[in-house]
Amino acid sequence: MARSKNRKPAEVSSGSMADIAFLLLIFFLVTTTIANDKGILISLPPKPDPNEPPPVVEKNDKNIYAILANSQDKLLVESEPYEGTMEELTEDIKKFVLNFGKPGEEGVAVYNSLPSSLKSYINSNGRNPESSDDPIEAVVSFKANRGTTYELYISVLDAVYKAYDEIYAERAGLTVEEWLTLDKSKDAQKEIYAQAREGIGRNISIAEPN
């Protein structure tokens, strides 16, 4: 039988394509994870009472590791221009915190509680009497200028926090990665976290920028 010459060619329904595109759009919206910038996770102190004078904290200068950042992104560490890397800054902070130059009774107890690896680290770096007395007294102070870039500000804070995390991790017998992933909602891991930080508080002072 001869085919009709007037027969129209088959057409693809555009309606179904629109439905498919809509469903794909919904799928990607549901499954895509959008990263949110959470800023810097720092616990700020409570707002001071305006009717009360601020407390006076007396600290020997040798127990304060001062880091200053200016508007040209130059660092001044312990009153000297600093040209080292952030990794070197982390190491310098560790040496300062673990100096044990003139420990008190509590400082001696902290030293005795440390694993042999940290004791060897302390003894190999020497105990400078001109540096911090012990981790209880040691304070790392950081002050930036309003012109300091966000990148440098974060890099310095990361170096400071990393120094403490490396100390805690080694004291707990963990890698830094394992230390950072401890689940403090579980009693056993919470106990490890508390023991690693006992006597070595994260004493960091962040001053208001100029």
Structure, described:
The protein has a 5-stranded mixed β-sheet, with helices on one face. The protein has 7 helices and 5 strands; from the N terminus they run αβββαααβαααβ. It is α/β, with parallel strands linked by helices and 210 residues long. The protein has helices spanning 14-31, 86-97, 105-113, 116-124, 150-172, 176-180, 187-197; strands at 64-69, 75-77, 80-82, 139-144, 204-207. The longest helix has 23 residues, at 150-172. Strand 1 and strand 2 (75-77) form a beta hairpin. It has one domain (61-207). Helices cover 41% and strands 10% of the residues.
Short descriptors:
7 helices, 5-stranded mixed β-sheet, alpha/beta, 210 residues
The count of strands amounts to 5
- Give the helices and strands as they follow along the chain: HEEEHHHEHHHE
Number of helices: 7
Q: What distance lies between the first and last C-alpha atoms, to the nearest angstrom?
A: 94 Å
Q: Percent of residues in helical segments?
A: 40-55%
Report the major sheet.
5 strands, mixed
The low-confidence parts are: none
**Range of strand content:** 5-15%
Number of domains: 1
Shape annotation: elongated
Rg, Å, rounded: 28 Å
